[in-house]
Amino acid sequence: MSTNNIIERYGNLIKEESLVTMEDKILPNTFVLEAPEPFPGFYSYYSDAPSDSKPLYVYLVLNKQYTIEETTRATQNIKDYFKTNFSAAAGHIDIYNEQFEILRIRHLDSYDQIMDLQACYKDEGIEFKKKPKSIQGKGIIRLRKFFTLEELGDDMFFDVDEKDHGYFTIPRKLKWKEFEEITKKVKNNWDFSNFDAAVGHFHKNFCICDMIRIYNPKIDREYLEAAKKKYLERIK
Prior knowledge:
Layout: E1 6-21, E2 32-35, E3 57-61, H1 68-79, E4 87-95, E5 98-106, H2 113-123, E6 136-153, E7 156-159, E8 165-169, H3 176-188, E9 196-204, E10 207-215, H4 221-232
Antiparallel strand pairs: 1-2, 1-6, 1-9, 2-3, 3-5, 4-5, 4-6, 6-7, 7-8, 8-10, 9-10
């Protein structure tokens, strides 16, 4: 990987995940959601053992929407002393006609770190929503996040921080339902359709570049090019 091809972008990502309410390993009377299987069928994201005890995607539900400066500064300060190089992204979740502001947390070493991390954010002025009744079901997640990308050319990228994630730009914005329908058509008409997809955009040169994210543990440039072709054939 050449460092000359590494770029940073800010943008957003929209995806659907099955979520459950965490009942323990969290600060008392706080609301935390988990996606225990964020990439259905891909058990080897962190290890070859499906029973790996590391949390994959954890969503700390906040008491309000904080600015990107507030969440970024808090995360930056915590990373100076927290023992794991975790990843955090702000956003919101729509589930059962309710919307919750969240911090999406990744790359923790164990469930025991969730409570410690919550305490760190509280020290930085970030407050959490009190726990309602337990929620379980599919939610639409919209993240506001920074991307570190390796440019491949032809408007394609690999994610430097998240393994097996690739991106390609598309000519226009896709609404969620349209993206879902196009993804179904791609999966039903491609022999190599075992992938997870999300939609979003990057900011570049004061403009917006719409894009699609593809996850596959065997992704390479050829696979990403093929996925891009399949999507572009169906985006009119």
